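TA notes, week 10

Several of you asked for a full example with nothing omitted. So below is the full record: structure tokens for the whole chain, then the designed sequence directly under it. When grading your own attempts, check the secondary structure regions first.
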């Protein structure tokens, strides 16, 4: 986990311990996770903190997608993944 991501989850944990009134406002809200790198190399367990934070806060976890760029280009496989993910999100949110 990068330092920036660690700080993000530290702030989320503040909503659980310190700023409980703000944390309670997240209950019932939706969360999804989009990650991007230079390779199709999402590490096992990367999504777990997002899923578990959403569960703990009573949020609806809508899923996640990992994308990547090769030689400064988004390839057709990634475009298809994104299109499918976005279609599923739209269906869920309009459902």
């Amino acid at each position: 986990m990068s330092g920036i991501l660690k700080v993000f989850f530290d702030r989320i944990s503040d909503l659980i311990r310190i700023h409980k009134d703000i944390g309670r406002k997240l209950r019932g809200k939706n969360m999804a996770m989009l990650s991007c790198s230079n390779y199709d190399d999402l590490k096992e367990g990367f999504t777990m903190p997002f899923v578990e934070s959403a569960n703990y806060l009573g949020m609806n976890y809508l899923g996640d997608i990992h994308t990547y760029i090769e030689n400064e280009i988004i390839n057709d496989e990634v475009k298809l993944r994104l299109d499918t993910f976005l279609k599923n999100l739209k269906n869920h949110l309009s459902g």
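The chain has four helices and two strands. Use that as a sanity check on your answer.
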